[in-house]
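Q: For a teaching handout, I want to show students what a protein-ligand complex looks like in token form. Below are the inputs, and the small molecule is fe (ii) ion. Please produce the holo structure.
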Amino acid sequence: MAEAGTLHDAFIDELRDSYDGEKQLTKALAKLAKTATSPRLRETFAAHLEETQGQIERLEQVFELMEEKARGKHCDGIAGIVEEGKSIMAEDFDETTMDACLIAAGQRAEHYEMAAYGTLVAWAQAMGHSEAAKLLQQTLDEEKAADKKLSALAEGGINQGAADAAHADAEEEPVAAASSAPKRSLKANRR
Ligand SMILES: [Fe+2]
Ligand SMILES: [Fe+2]
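A: Here is the structure, written as tokens, with fe (ii) ion included.
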């Protein structure tokens, strides 16, 4: 009978999941940057794309520390988030609304990554892999900072710009339709 897997095995498995997820995200971030209209949003996605390339190298260092070959295992979670992002980009939204939606899509990915790296750091610490924990913490900090930056952009004008455009349309609609408009406000960016 095969021996039961340990937390160390689960840790290596999660590393492979994140390694694949980061690779998927480098492609997705390039598309988000290309689709964004706000120059600051484009820059934010482009900067995080560069950071993500560094995160891939950092994971390779962790694999090396664990004396494991660096290889990915398909990350279904990020794949799903990337698919949703693609659907959003295929929509015919006005520019500012699209920017608000790109932020929402980006933040879904950042939160997934924050959960993944939070676990990886905790497990590495629990098992005494302090060097690996330190490297993974650096990535966790970058993911948190990227999420905060996206919130700041959403709350610093993009959401309001999109909301103003939505309300301008609503005024032209019959009263019954206009009265339901405020219910459509996006709550996703509030953290
Ligand atoms: Fe990442
Ligand atoms: Fe990220």
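A: Two things your students might notice: The chain is about 80% helix and 0% strand. Confidence is low (pLDDT under 50) at residues 177-181, 183-188.
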